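Figure 6 in text form: structure in, sequence out.
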């Protein structure tokens, strides 16, 4: 039995108790599918973030949600080949911040493992100096992914607001 064993998912119906009182940090989300993998390109409604924020977020996700991390990578610019840092991650005691190569600013930073909240494999890639992140998952549930990203950006894992989304933006 492998990583692609699908677990029976509960239907996710958005109710008022699933929503926070304020506006979403997600401005737009685009979803495409390639085989069993789903790619979510997410435009955050916030100022562009830089390298230190990306490293902090990767370490936060590493500590709070991701298990069995099997991918840590950087690249100089979007579209250039990834530099695999998984062995250095393991040698650093499973800490993103302790990887020596992380001290040098790059164009992208990615981390992948099994999300304990989604019960699925995920990879999150932050793109430096933008307000864009890319999430890969086998979950086709856009509302669940929206809640997951909202929780990550707000850093509300482990709180009463975990897995709640902000109110959508008026169109």
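Output sequence:
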């Amino acid at each position: 039995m492998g990583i692609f064993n699908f677990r029976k998912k509960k239907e996710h119906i958005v109710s008022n108790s699933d929503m926070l009182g304020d506006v979403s940090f997600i401005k737009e989300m685009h979803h495409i599918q390639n085989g069993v993998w789903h790619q979510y390109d997410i435009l955050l409604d916030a100022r562009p973030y830089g390298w230190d924020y990306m490293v902090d977020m990767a370490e936060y996700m590493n500590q709070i949600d991701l298990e069995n991390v099997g991918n840590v990578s950087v690249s100089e610019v979007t579209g250039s080949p990834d530099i695999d840092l998984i062995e250095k991650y393991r040698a650093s005691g499973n800490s993103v911040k302790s990887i020596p190569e992380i001290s040098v600013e790059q164009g992208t930073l990615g981390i992948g493992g099994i999300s304990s909240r989604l019960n699925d494999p995920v990879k999150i890639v932050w793109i430096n100096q933008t307000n864009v992140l890319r999430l890969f998952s086998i979950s086709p549930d856009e509302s669940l992914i929206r809640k997951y990203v909202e929780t990550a950006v707000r850093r509300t894992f482990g709180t009463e607001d975990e897995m709640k989304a902000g109110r959508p933006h008026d169109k």
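Caption detail: The two ends are 44 Å apart (CA to CA).
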